[in-house]
Q: What sequence folds into this?
């Protein structure tokens, strides 16, 4: 029984940590220029970016290529309303980009959140193990 509770607890904590670890991200703005020099210097394939273009459209994508004249990637579905279909290929010319932000994981925020969840979980286990089950006291008193 104790092994079952331990496994259940471990899987619950792991699930919570995975969900919360993605919540600790920040968006860092990059100066957009028509030549794309700053973007090419700071954005790499694999980065997740949010871009606003000259026509006021907002795009969120995972970058697959940083080209000479454009940024190429795959649209990411988010809770924000957008015009891009998740998984679709997007190519944005540097001269059309008005604002660009790169998503970064904040190690400090993530560590603090993970530690807080671990402390709460440990307190819950200790408290749960310290409670008495019904009938335990009457059994001991009768002996």
A:
């Amino acid at each position: 029984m104790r092994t079952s509770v331990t496994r259940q607890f471990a899987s619950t904590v792991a699930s919570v940590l995975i969900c919360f670890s993605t919540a600790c991200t920040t968006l860092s703005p990059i100066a957009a220029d028509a030549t794309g020099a700053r973007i090419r210097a700071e954005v790499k394939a694999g980065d997740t970016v949010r871009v606003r273009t000259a026509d006021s459209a907002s795009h969120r994508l995972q970058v697959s290529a940083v080209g000479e004249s454009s940024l190429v990637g795959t649209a990411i579905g988010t809770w924000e309303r957008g015009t891009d279909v998740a998984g679709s290929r997007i190519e944005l010319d540097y001269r059309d980009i008005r604002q660009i932000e790169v998503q970064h994981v904040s190690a400090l925020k993530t560590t603090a959140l993970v530690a807080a969840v671990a402390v709460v979980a440990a307190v819950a286990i200790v408290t749960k193990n310290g409670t008495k089950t019904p009938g335990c006291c009457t059994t001991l008193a009768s002996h």
